[in-house]
Amino acid sequence: MDSLINLIVYLVVFGLIWWLVSLLPLPSPVAQVVRVLFIILLILIVLSVFGVLPGGYLPRLTL
């Protein structure tokens, strides 16, 4: 249950950061690179929360 709460909190924060970055007036090639990096980061967050990858770089959230 704790990992599910961590995943929800991380995805909400990730969505807010994605939304703020999408508001920036970036040139098209830079925006595509940023979009790919965000997708890779999203995959890493989901895999590390479920224990597929070691997620030592993600802080454990306690509510």
Automatic annotation (TrEMBL):
Entry keywords, A to Z: Membrane, Transmembrane, Transmembrane helix
Top-level taxon of origin: Bacteria
Transmembrane parts of this sequence: 7-24, 36-58
Protein's name according to its UniProt entry: Asparagine N-glycosylation enzyme membrane subunit Stt3
